[in-house]
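Hi F.,

I've been meaning to write this up properly since the lab meeting, where we talked about keeping a consistent format for the predictions we share between groups. The idea is simple: the sequence comes first, exactly as it goes in, then the structure tokens exactly as they come out, then a line or two of notes. No screenshots and no reformatting. I'm using this chain as the first example so we have something concrete to point to.
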Amino acid sequence: MALAKPGFGWLSIIRLGLVQASIGAIVMLATSLLNRVMVVEYALAAAIPAGLVAWHYAVQLTRPLWGHGSDRGRRRTPWILGGMATLALGAVMAVYATIQMAPNPLLGGVLAVAAFSLIGMGVGASGTSMLALLASAVAPERRSAAAAVTWIMMVAGIVVSAGVSGALLDPFSEQRLAMVSCGVALTALLVSGLAVRHLEPDQPFVFEALTKDGAPSFPEALREILHENAARRFTVFIFVSMLAYSMQDLILEPFAGLVFGMTPGESTQLAGVQHTGVLLGMIAAGIGGSAFAGRMPIDLRIWIVTGCAGSALALAGLAAGAIHGPGWPLTLNVFVLGLCNGLFAVAAIGAMMGLAGAGRKTREGVRMGVWGAAQAIAFGLGGLTGALGVDLARGAQGQDGSAFQLIFMIEACLFVVAAGLAIHATHKTVSRGRKAATI
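Output, unedited:
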């Protein structure tokens, strides 16, 4: 099948990267900042914010439906903007719910569930549609590079949001929390709106296949994708690697506060250090050429395996720091963890984008939705398992340090398993993507 000549240049790719940056900035508020505030400032069990975050990931199981909806339409921009508006509204509601949890736990809890439902729907609709647009509008040989650029910008958005929010939150107060959070949400919504303005009308090739063949029904598209061996193998790899990646997500800031005595601003900035490492790791992998050049599948595997192994070692270091306590080079340790996470992530993203465009046209949205759903399940289970594990271990052992040590070591073992899965899964995935690029 001859593909229509792609028209998305680097400027258009960067504009979509601004959407990713906006999504990351808002999600940081819910999964990092509010998690810390609930556990440390309000002394809630870590399972409460973990359950809320897990619920927002459970809602993202609808990602294939969002992707299919954008596949069947002639434009993906309304799905992106509608998702961003829903995400921003959910984030603001989540902040209000958090503030209400102390004086009115029932009201706060009900509002929190509703807020995180909106956050899950917003991330699913905007993120899946944006990635589908990227996969369908960029030339096959440029997809990996485009994916890396947009993810680097997403991490940059998280870093900037975490750094600015952390600096503005001290000294902590509920009023400061509300003002800073609303400012981040509104800024992200404005930036994403400007980024996609008039982006699609100039790209009629994006839905050329739709006008000829029409999009399949959702069950038909889903069956087609799940029957592909390469897609199934890659889905398993995504699940295990993201499970390993996410177990520390909800406990890192509480860990910094409970074991190292950091303030909310300091622990939020520590999260910014981690994401700075992720950003530099992605850049390093991109400059290395494995994600951009697509020369040899083994290059991609080396970056993924190296990143997973390095992440396991960094987590072993955090486990040692949990017992050592103050005096441990925590900032450096967290930076190295982020760096190794970035190395494996950018290579995995390159493989994902290659496989997304490897099948028949009009399926990109469903494909990205399936992998997004696998990632969402892993993130939800990982975050909830990590937080519940810490709560149970703290209750059983009566020591914060040993409880965090256990979870960090379990996560390190999962990264070792993910490295093994990557050796086989990414080889087949990249081979399939390269073959499709010649069709």
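Notes:
DSSP finds 17 helices and no strands in the chain.
The chain has one domain: 10-436.

If this format works for you, I'll send the rest the same way.

G.
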